């Protein structure tokens, strides 16, 4: 989110930041008002520091919608009170409750058509893929702060039998692949 705002990205959406304090501040200001507030980074020190953002409150919502899948089809979702803050060309969905972005209805419930966005940023390790891959030209994994990382070498392993998939090349079939290519 920081990079998108600093680089003045256009036609982008960030989904979603669970931050009840920021939601309260935006609702107090009201739709159409420009506010400056700190977003995210308030849960613990593992997920990075809050980001100071200035933007226009575009939407205030009750955060309720029904998932159309592919995961959780028919599930009633309640994000709590929610808002969309636009900072430059970036729409930031901020909610009271946490939710994995497993359905494109998340965006549509705020009047945002995800297929029309140039950039969609989600904080999710895997759950987003089923719904987002069909509309994505490219997926870029980012090693953001938190308790999950796509970069397995970032973790310190103890009492681990080696070799083990996917940490060791021989378990990835690379050795066998190289041999077969040489033959």
Q: What labels describe this entry?
A:
alpha/beta, six-stranded mixed beta sheet, two-stranded antiparallel ribbon, 5 helices, 8 strands
Word description of this protein:
- This protein is an alpha/beta fold and 183 residues long.
- Helix content is 17%, strand content 25%.
- The strands form 2 sheets. The chain has a 6-stranded mixed beta sheet with strand order 2-3-6-7-1-8. Strands 4-5 form a two-stranded antiparallel sheet.
- β6 (82-87) and β7 (90-95) form a beta hairpin.
- It is globular and about 60 Å long.
- The mean pLDDT is 89.
Alpha carbon gyration radius = 19 Å
The quaternary organization reads as single chain
Q: How much of the polypeptide forms β-strand, as a percent range?
A: 25-35%
> How many strand units?
8
The domain count comes to 2
Rough outline: globular
Major sheet: arrangement of strands? 2-3-6-7-1-8
Low-confidence stretches: none
Determine the fraction of residues in helical runs and give it as a percent range: 10-25%
Structural class: alpha/beta
């Amino acid at each position: 989110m920081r990079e998108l705002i600093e680089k003045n990205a256009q036609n982008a959406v960030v989904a979603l930041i669970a931050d009840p304090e920021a939601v309260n501040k935006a609702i107090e200001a009201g739709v159409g008002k420009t506010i400056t507030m700190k977003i995210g980074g308030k849960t613990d020190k593992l997920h990075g520091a809050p980001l100071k953002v200035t933007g226009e409150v575009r939407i205030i919502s009750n955060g309720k919608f029904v998932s159309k899948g592919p995961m959780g089809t028919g599930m009633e979702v309640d994000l709590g009170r929610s808002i969309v803050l636009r900072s430059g060309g970036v729409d930031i969905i901020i909610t009271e409750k946490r939710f994995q972005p497993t359905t494109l209805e998340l965006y549509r419930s705020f009047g945002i058509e995800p297929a029309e966005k140039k950039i969609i940023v989600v904080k999710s390790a895997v759950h987003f893929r089923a719904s987002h891959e069909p509309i994505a030209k490219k997926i870029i994994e980012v090693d953001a702060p938190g308790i999950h990382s796509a970069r397995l070498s970032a973790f310190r392993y103890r009492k681990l039998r080696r070799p083990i998939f996917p940490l060791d090349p021989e378990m990835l079939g690379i050795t066998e692949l190289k041999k077969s290519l040489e033959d």
